[in-house]
Amino acid sequence: MQAWQVHENGEPGEVMRLTEVERPTPGDGQVLLRVRAANVNFPDALLCRGQYQVRPPLPFTPGVEICGETEDGRRVIANPALPHGGFAEYALADARALLPAPGSLDDAEAAALHIGYQTGWFGLHRRARLQAGETLLVHAAAGGVGSAAVQLGKAAGATVIGVVGGPDKATVARKLGCDVVVDRRAEDVVAAVKEATGGRGADVIYDPVGGEAYAQSAKLVAFEGRIVVVGFAGGTVPSPALNHALVKNYSILGLHWGLYNTKNPELVRHCHEQLTELADRGAIRPLVSERVPFDAAADAVQRVADGVTTGRLAVVPENGATA
Hints:
Layout: E1 2-6, H1 12-15, E2 16-20, E3 30-39, H2 42-49, E4 66-69, E5 75-78, E6 90-94, E7 99-100, H3 107-111, H4 115-127, E8 135-139, H5 144-155, E9 159-164, H6 167-176, E10 180-183, H7 189-196, E11 202-207, H8 212-220, E12 221-229, H9 242-248, E13 251-254, H10 258-263, H11 265-280, E14 288-293, H12 297-306, E15 312-316
Helix pairs in contact: 2-12, 4-5, 4-11, 7-8
């Protein structure tokens, strides 16, 4: 079969190589899946660079999120078991962790429903306890992680403010349903959000960026507000001033979604049921901005790493399907 492999760490566009390899053999508790679509995530770039918390042995195939097909023909969503990741014709996955792909979504959309939406659901509902009528601010609102949080926030009845970088991403954020969109490249984010909220700030801030975005969050969080730290796509890990959190009376909440797979897998399945229900009634729908041919996977991962994409990119193998 064909698979994209990384033999040395570096930038995705330089180290991902399309190779002919043996089809992987499932180990205990694993299943072999035919990949129908593989979603591109920022962790795929970190894996290539050797900067992710999980470091599979070289060579490995990246691709942490797929819609696949079992040997008996079931469409499922899975996190492939590295080193046999999703940018291949076939991947391995933990049989106990397979989730049914919603019939209301095509393969690319189903592949994109998992990590970003699970992260958003756990961040907004489990950690921040977002309530209807509250104000939610989402950094990188037009990106894969941010777009999921915007849709989930709207579905929960929140007023959503999206922060984006550039007019094209601003257009995407508006189409996603943001009530207010702030272009950080053309506007003062702090001033714009304070104006939009009458000086109060946001009740919940969803931050997958870190760095300067977190510094803005600390200035914009409302009394008894909650900042959900999801990741550091901006490349800088901030050092919060805890005295500021004390004086201003807000909470800083960390979220590592992957821990729920081992600490509370039943909650992951419950979340998937909630997401499926929302998708089936049209309240959420993954924003797949591009369905990428298999031979362009390395370029797709590089573009996500460079932060120049909107929504999700999905890699579709030649043997895959889109519906």
